[in-house]
From TrEMBL, chain A:
This is Elongator complex protein 5. The keyword Cell membrane does not apply. Pathway: tRNA modification; 5-methoxycarbonylmethyl-2-thiouridine-tRNA biosynthesis. Keywords: Cytoplasm, Nucleus, tRNA processing. GO terms for biological process: tRNA wobble uridine modification. It comes from Collichthys lucidus (Big head croaker). The keyword Ribosomal protein does not apply.
UniProtKB/TrEMBL annotation, chain B:
GO terms for cellular component: cytoplasm; elongator holoenzyme complex; transcription elongation factor complex. It comes from Collichthys lucidus. This is Elongator complex protein 4. Belongs to the ELP4 family. One of its GO terms (biological process) is tRNA wobble uridine modification.
Amino acid sequence: MLTELLQGTDAGGFLIIQDSASYSGRHLLKSFINAALHREEAVHVLGFEVSEEELKDGLKGASIHRLHFHNVYTDPLGWTHNPAFTVYQFCSEGVTQLVKQTSQSKPVTLVIDSLSWILRHVGPPAVCKTLQQLRKGGAVRAIIGLLHADMHQRGTVGSVCHMATSVITVAPGMKGDEAVAKITKRSKSGKVMQDEEIFSFKEDFTVVVQNRPSQLGLKQTETEERETDPTANLTFNLRLSDTEREAKEKLALPFVFSKEKKTALLHSGRGSGRILYEPDANDDYDQEDPDDDLDV
Amino acid sequence: MAAPMSGVGEASAERSSFNATSFQKKTRSRLISIPGTRPSVQNGQLLVSTGVTSLDYLLGGGLAVGTVLLIEEDRYDSYSRMILKYFLAEGVVCRHELFVAAAQDNPDDILQELPAPILDDVAIHKPVEQPRLSCEPQDSMDAMKIAWRYQNLPKVQSALASSSRFGHYYDVSKTMEPEIRQAAKCHRFYLPEHPTQSSPTHSTMLESYSALLKSLQDVIHREGFDVAAPMTKSRNILRIGLHSLGSALWGDDLCCHDNPNNVHALTSFLYGLRALLRSSLSVAVVTVPSHLIQDRALMGSITRLCDNAIALESFKGSERETNPLYKDYHGLLHVRQVPHLNCLASKLPDHKDLAFKLKRKQFSIERLHLPPDLSETVSRVSRGELAGAATMASGCSFGTSGNKHLDF
């Protein structure tokens, strides 16, 4: 499923790469940027955590001119006099304006590196609202964000991922350069697909997906024992031949009655002591509350 | 107070003509009957159907008018959204008015996804109905040769259903026809369309919730759903569906932080909502993403503030998905609270372990059955262990099950 996601997100899609301190998701983020550039999309990167050189390192090719890096790294909180973009300007109008400055009319792919940085300074409800507005608005086609799951409370991570259409959680794999990705994808019809894959990177940030991780460790699938035939290897014969089976079925069992007697016995419920009662006028068969006529 | 229905007055009217005395029983003036409702057999409350007949059975026949049903969402909000759509679709079919509020999706999108009703009532299944009515043996059940006396006994009724045809059935694979949907009046509240400005007064409720409550109040007054309104025209029920309250898109940080700043925002809103509902002919279904709320005490108070509360737990994504015990079902359903309206005790559901399954024509809620363990590894308790266990159970309980016979 990882390759499908790399090949393109649908319009209005929101993909989150969740990583932790043990394995950084930035490599995978660069793969996504690379794939988007190869698809000839305009990619805008809001860089909070790493500098432009570091992010562009390794991404080569003629399509690099479609990558627009908005440098929030040098001055994110606006301590100098004229910052390019501060984290407090992260609202839908601010981002739309920023994106429209440098791009043409085609909707862009917005990459946020990283969402955790914004969540530290702007509250989660505001961030969620902004992301929702960006998705619904026309300027941005798809959003890809990097989220460090161990930096926030569980509720925050859960709330942001609740809004995403796809979530990829990366963790270190068994061998050195491999990593495990747990992918959850929600389609528009509400169907949820999940997958777990092992992947590694090649030189130019393309992703090589290996097979699914084998079931080692704690999850041991029990192999079903083949059912042994109990009638084999005996000194007496427990099997039936066809004629014997026919004879068995023809045999009249002692308490098997004919069909008429059976139905007569089954439906003989009536007539065996039922009490039929018709309430007459003297009975006070009143369903209403006797206190109803009290005028209290 | 939820609108009570007077009891059946017809029988007494007939009876009075036979009375020898001149005593006239004073009967309360009856409410004009509203389509799609019926009185409860337990306490006389006016009930509406939730759209899911199994859920009606769990809630004691239906949702009482003037109450709130809280649905704790499952992890990916698929089944809770489905129940909300069933509820709204039932409103369209019964010709009630609808009010839909959402912050994430446009209410129009939710209304377009309503399932199509199965209007042919004859085609409704229910093979677990007792076959005593028919004299000829049923084709579907093979006639038992030896145990034929048990043939006509009803099968174990694992699917919960109320006996009367109160609710309707819906086909999930089709959406409702636009003509049917447009025949019903819908009021919408989409949060991004209501720009909120920070209020100068410090209130416990958030602006988004205040705006929603105000909008609800306006609709109820304007359309005449108040109980206090003059009963000149025909009355109708307002069905309110509130999607995903408490999520971050409503501006609430209940789901985001362990110690939220707006602790009382959602609880104040629910309190106001319930007060509004009690004085009007309306019913509300609220869904809350409770899996994101970390503070269990807060979740408990939210549950207490609503009359009915159920929680859905879907198996998708959890380790239970591969558990063979659960392979027939899509998730578990927990009943967190049943209402006690105008009475001291309420009718609790018989079974606590319920599981749900979304089929194409029905959302069925069943009692979770343990499948028979037919494998070779079933342990057989030896007689000695059984005797030892019996003596231990009769005396004081030790709690260890490994003891064999105790020789006294």
